[in-house]
Amino acid sequence: MKLAGVSVAGIETCIEVPSLRLVLDMGCCTRAAVQQPVVLVSHGHLDHIGAIAQHAARRSMLQMSEGIYLVPAAVARDVEELFNAAGRLDGQAIPRRVVPLGPGEDFPLANKRWVRPFETYHRVPSQGYTVWERRHRLRAEFRNLPGARLAELRHSGVAIEEAQDVALLSFTGDTRVEVLERTAELQHAETLVMEATFLDERVTVEGARSMGHIHLNEVLERAELLPRGEVVLSHFSARYGAEDVQRIVRERLPDELRPFVKLFGVGGAEFAS
Ligand SMILES: [Zn+2]
Ligand SMILES: [Zn+2]
Hints:
Layout lengths: L3 E5 L3 E6 L4 E3 L6 H4 L3 E3 L5 H4 L2 H10 L5 E6 L3 H15 L5 E6 L5 E4 L2 E7 L7 E12 L8 H9 L5 E11 L7 H4 L8 E5 L9 H6 L5 H6 L8 E5 L7 H11 L8 E4 L4 E3 L2
Parallel strand pairs: 3-4, 4-5, 5-6, 10-11, 11-12, 12-13
Antiparallel strand pairs: 1-2, 2-3, 7-8, 8-9, 9-10, 13-14
One zinc ion (ZN) binds next to helix 2.
């Protein structure tokens, strides 16, 4: 899945997903991100939400539809207040639609496609998001039949297909690692964007946990829980330069994970291998 934008811990996170017409967090507002009408906000830390009013105001200035901001229900009122204060500073109301959404609640994105938050474990109210798509596939008992026979069955009213909900994209936002064990869909997502803020001994696992973040050690210990689609590690601490990240992950990643793991920092996803 094509991703663009930036994600550096404590600095800014704004990950565009053009194919789904949405953005993951809004810590800074790139020109491209303005084009996407829906923003999934993981939590209220300013490096994840600080540019939200800018995004909405710029869409309004460009006469685009109002931005839609899905936020954890616990922060919805503060987000509205932030928009109101920004509108007073700017001298005009900022058109926007703030949608408080809790874990397990659905928000429709397109025909047969929706987003549903899941619980995460950070230092402030937080949640991750999964984009689901309903697909239809042949039921197991019909899979080996020739096309003509299938057409016949369909014609005679037999339900030869079944619905299957596919997790296209899961985004953890900032969280401790137990989100992997506790959220079944993360293990099956076609693309999993997860934070891995700390990569080596410069910060301990305990240190990472106390800050509400994931350490690479914890990811490697849970390799069997990672989906076999695409795992995009992101939100690296600013103490690691881009080359640092590449080198450390390359050194530490076992062979079996190399085909699945990509790194996302500044400017898009790159393969770890
Ligand atoms: Zn963060
Ligand atoms: Zn945070």
